[in-house]
Amino acid sequence: MDSGIRQPFEASAGGSRGELPSRVARALWWGPAALVLTVVGTSVLVAGTGRGWRLPAALALVLAQACALRWQVRAPVRVLAVNTTLGLAVWALLPAVSLTGALLAAQVTLCVLSATRPRRVSLGALAAMCVPAPLAFGAGGAGGAALYLLTVALAWMTGQWRRAQQARVRAEARRAVVEERARIAREVHDVVAHTLSVMVVQAGAADDVFTERPDQARQALRAIETGARSALGELRLLLRAFQPEAGEDEPGKPPEQRPSLARLEELADTVRATGMTVRVYREGTLDGLPAAVDLAAYRIVQEALTNTLRHAAGADEVRVRVTAVGESLEVTVVDNGRGRQAGSASAGSGRGLVGMEERARLVGGTLRAGSSPDGGFEVAARLPVGGVS
What's residue 110's pLDDT? Predict the structure, then answer.
């Protein structure tokens, strides 16, 4: 599996169509607002000197445009209409300010609208923004009109490029989830097949000794009950994880070859062979974990170690801690690297982190990945033990 980019990652539900995280929304206000106040405000100050009341009126309109950008992510169509009107008013007060400059805020909003709304909506907005082109032609001739239309088209195309980029990221994340679920389905199939095979053997043994040795028969029946409860939990997980695209199941593996926390030292040894120091700490009782939780924890550790080898710049040590606390299992993997390597953003696609988060989510757990307070990179997962089976 492709390892993810080493950047802070929190498991969270995706927003609805057209919505952006609040951090991005704030950036799309302050940045463009500063640009509009600087560029258009300076032009107005230069063009409005000695024009009496027109200068403060135009400055107030520029300030209103900057304030309107606050809502351009939530309601870009309305903000575009407002900023177009205000920009035309600025140009009417001070014709020395070019129409392209006066409508700078509207062009910024057109870019955001193009990136966050369907193409049919953004094409309508693009057409509306082209309507004032004759005014630019009247004020600056063919050159003025061409400049205005070019900046409007560039704003729209920039938004389309950003929209396509976001669509590719979402498609890659969905593909990673589907592949991870298919892999989980195959592995859970192995676990359930093994459990049911043991139940069949126990049932046959109970039938053989049912009359002569009832105590031994009861013991076999209790083992069947325990195995059935475990298999039921695994089947629930399988039904949640199964996808039609998963294809045919791979042949099952013997229990001693199945990924498990019992083989954690073997996993650590493969990383130690590269020269990395791996320290493994176990706390609490780790025997008897539900097979789904055991498998998820192992895969999370495996992917985190792979990320360390591929993306931890300067890391020479990684600590793996697995702790059983009450009704949950805590898994932490921390390296001592300097964080993301230069260029790693292009080397990974984020699918490793998506896969780990999907592993944790399907067993009812949570996962956090990001910079460690002591430096380096940390992956921390909490997996419930009591509610799986």
Answer: 92
Measure the CA–CA gap between 105 and 115, rounded to whole angstroms: 16
Cα distances (angstroms) measured from residue 382 to each of 162, 217, 291, 375: 35, 38, 16, 21
The partner residues of 378 in beta bridges, in order of sequence, read 334, 370
Run of H or E including 56: helix 54-68
Query: How far is CA 142 from each of CA 126, 133, 146, 148, 239, rounded to the nearest angstrom?
Result: 20, 10, 6, 10, 65
Mind giving me the DSSP string for 97-109?
S-HHHHTHHHHHH
Give the chain's length.
389
| pLDDT reported for residue 262 | 86
- The helix or strand, by DSSP H or E, that contains position 388, with its residue range, turns out to be none
Which run of H or of E encompasses 343? none
Taking each helix axis as running N to C, give the angle between helix 104-116 and helix 22-48, from 0 to 180 degrees, rounded to the nearest 10: 160
Closest CA to 113 of 157, 144, 146: 157
Q: Tell me the mean pLDDT per 10 residues along the chain, length 389.
A: 36 40 68 86 84 88 90 89 91 87 89 89 90 85 87 91 86 77 67 64 72 77 71 61 42 58 86 82 85 86 83 82 89 80 40 79 88 84 75
Place of tokens 């952006």: 20
Amino acid identity, residue 291? A
Q: With 0-12 CB in 10 A as exposed, 13-18 as middle and 19+ as buried, what is 193?
A: middle
Rounded-to-10 torsion of CA 222, 226, 227, 233: 160
Can you give the pTM of this predicted structure? 0.49
SS3 319: strand
